[in-house]
Design a protein that fits this description.
mainly alpha; globular
């Protein structure tokens, strides 16, 4: 993702902060919870796919949730000043879509727990978890024949611009 895209996300986040100082301890906790919520929504669609439910527009819904997860992960990385974590690979081995989804939920839970304990945390553990979360999102996107950065550019950022673009200059 480009620096311009990161800046756009951060500017929208700042405009919608609702009194929270962007990047503050409270904001980091909010972003961790938001990421956890988005991963839960993604997990719900993956569960339905696994079960074989007939979900209209499932691919579009999974794409949308992957983008939302990636956007919140990006914002949390910016708030923790760890954007470089998202530019590296964690080295985790590819796995099945099911195991990948379960691992993603677990890792986001770990990250949320660390942020709750120490919102200012910029530790190696948070860096490693964010790196692994990005890789897991990438693997899930590829399992659906999608690319995470393409989702951000083509789906998520236009959706954000359309909904909240008037909040920033």
């Amino acid at each position: 993702m480009t620096e311009r895209q990161n800046k756009f996300l951060w500017n929208i986040h700042t405009a919608l902060s609702g009194g929270k100082k962007p990047g503050s301890e409270e904001d980091r906790q909010f972003l961790a919870l938001a990421l956890f919520g988005e991963v839960g929504e993604l997990a719900n669609f993956l569960k339905k796919e696994w079960r074989g439910d007939d979900v209209p527009d499932l691919r579009e819904k999974v794409t949308d949730e992957l983008g939302d997860c990636y956007a919140y992960l990006r914002l949390l990385a910016i708030a923790l000043n760890q954007q470089d974590a998202l530019d590296r690979s964690s080295g985790i081995e590819p796995t099945t879509k099911r195991r990948c989804a379960l691992r993603l939920c677990g890792r986001v839970g770990e990250l949320a727990g660390l942020i709750e304990e120490d919102p200012a945390s910029g530790s190696n553990v948070t860096w490693l978890l964010m790196t692994e979360i990005r890789d897991l999102l990438t693997m899930l996107a590829r399992a659906h024949v999608l690319e995470l950065d393409d989702i951000m550019e083509r789906v998520t950022l236009p959706k954000i611009r359309a909904r909240w673009g008037d909040k920033i200059s």
